[in-house]
Amino acid sequence: MTVKLVLLITTVASLLILENKLPFFQFQNSLRSRIAANFGLGAINSILASIWTIAFAQFIMLPQIDRGLVGAISNPVIAGILSFLIIDLYMYFWHRSMHRLPLAWRFHRLHHTDRSMNVSTAYRFHPIEIIGSSIPKLLLIWSLGISSNFVLIYELVFTVVVALHHSNLAIPEVIDRLLSLVIVTPNLHRIHHSQVVAETNSNYGSVLSWWDRVFRTNNNRPDVINIQLGLTDEHIV
Ligand SMILES: [Zn+2]
User: Fold this and answer.
1) Burial (Cβ within 10 Å: 0-12, 13-18, ≥19) of residue 13
2) What mean pLDDT comes out for the span 100-124?
């Protein structure tokens, strides 16, 4: 088993137990069928993404790039930090475009239909979005010469942070606030899953919470416990 798969299974299993013991929202409806559907979709998406990435590398990215802008940086710490920031910034803009472009929203809104968010919501994505997001990302990584080790480091951090901020785990508010200075926390992401359109269209970050502050799309609504999750007719455009 790869490091990523082991980390994914460990993180998801831990969060499933923790969010069950310490839930933030007290959902009335049964989550079992939704959890199974979300994980099933996640498994299909990860198989599709793996096949697509291999096919892309084999048949499309034929010309070998010597180094690229990031690949040319000799200091591994600087190259690593830069790689992390570039990939996370790409994820921010990708997510923002999913909300802003009507055609893209048709696929992304599936992710927002959960009215009882939990760790499985992190894997509830339309396969078209998964494949679509990988094309510019792979081109970016390839053209800048970002090393596969740095991509792996980003993906490991992404795996943990994305699972955590979709979970229903009740983290003490003060800790959530402190963490939100750097990463996208459960409370920040709950606002993104709100039924209020202006809140859905905020907090687009994946790992770092900085991009939303830099590009003024952040929302720090304090009474997160009162948020109604999911979509309304207003979202269906
Ligand atoms: Zn979204």
Assistant:
1) exposed
2) 94
Distance 68 CA to ligand 1 centre (A): 31
Please write the tens of the pLDDT for every residue from 181-195. Answer: 999 999 999 999 999
Q: Cα of 77 to ligand 1 centre, how many Å? A: 31
**Tally of CB atoms within 10 A around 55:** 10
pLDDT value at 42 more than 60: yes
CA of 226 to the centre of ligand 1 (A): 19
What is the Å distance from ligand 1's center to 120 Cα? 15
Phi-psi region of 182 (alpha: psi -120 to 50; beta: other; left: phi over 0): alpha
Give the pLDDT of residue 72: 84
Distance 189 CA to ligand 1 centre (A): 9
Domains of the chain by residue range: 3-235
